[in-house]
Amino acid sequence: RILNIIHQPGSLWQRYPPSGRFPAEEVWSKKVLIHYGGQSAVRSGLIDEITSNLKEEGLEYITLGGVIPNPLLSKVREGIELCQKEHVDYLAVGGGSVIDSSKAIGYGVANPNNDVWDFCLKKAVPTAVAIGVILTIAASGSEMSSSSVITNEETKEKTMDVQRQITAGRNLPS
């Protein structure tokens, strides 16, 4: 099951919950953004499996695909706007670039009075919403790091942002 969460309390990885089911008082989200890259996640059936599991658990979700390598600031801003409009409180994602994009979306959603690019330029220090990871590629590194790479296509800048607040807290195995 996809929703059998792996989480990291301190430095130990544990399967949570051991039963694979979530008691109602432990559900950590009301609405999830499923953020993904190209169409391989759709063609492989992964998105259908994720949405089926979320429905079974009674969780609402929305989707946002189209992330490319070296994720674009415009896609991040699109994700922030969508999450704020839809009241998303948890992001579930795929490979390295998607995780980077989700980290930046998490900044923007949790800090609506700041421009997300200011966090990339270290003009402000963000808080973040929770992020889960459904790994679709082994060892991208983004699932374990606090950094993210975002490309501002208008200014042609590509920056790596490092924020301790945004390391993925839950990995959702695929």
Give a structural overview.
28% of the residues lie in helices and 22% in strands. It contains five helices and nine strands, in the order βββααβαβααββββ. The strands form two sheets. A seven-stranded mixed sheet has the order 2-1-9-6-5-3-4, sandwiched between helices. Strands 7-8 form a two-stranded antiparallel ribbon. It is globular, with a radius of gyration of 15 Å.
Low-confidence parts: 1-26, 166-174
Major sheet size, sense and barrel closure: 7 strands, mixed
Strand content: 15-25%
DSSP summary, beta strand count: 9
N- to C-terminal distance: 8 Å
Q: What is this entry, summarized?
A:
The protein has 174 residues and is α/β, with parallel strands linked by helices. It has five helices and nine strands, in the order βββααβαβααββββ.
Describe the structure using short key phrases.
5 helices, seven-stranded mixed beta sheet, 174 residues, disordered N terminus, two-stranded antiparallel ribbon, disordered C terminus, 9 strands, alpha/beta
How do the helices and strands line up, and which of them pair or pack?
Elements: E1 5-7, E2 14-16, E3 31-35, H1 40-43, H2 46-56, E4 60-64, H3 73-86, E5 90-93, H4 96-110, H5 116-120, E6 130-133, E7 147-152, E8 157-162, E9 170-171
Parallel strand pairs: 3-4, 3-5, 5-6, 6-9
Antiparallel strand pairs: 1-2, 1-9, 7-8
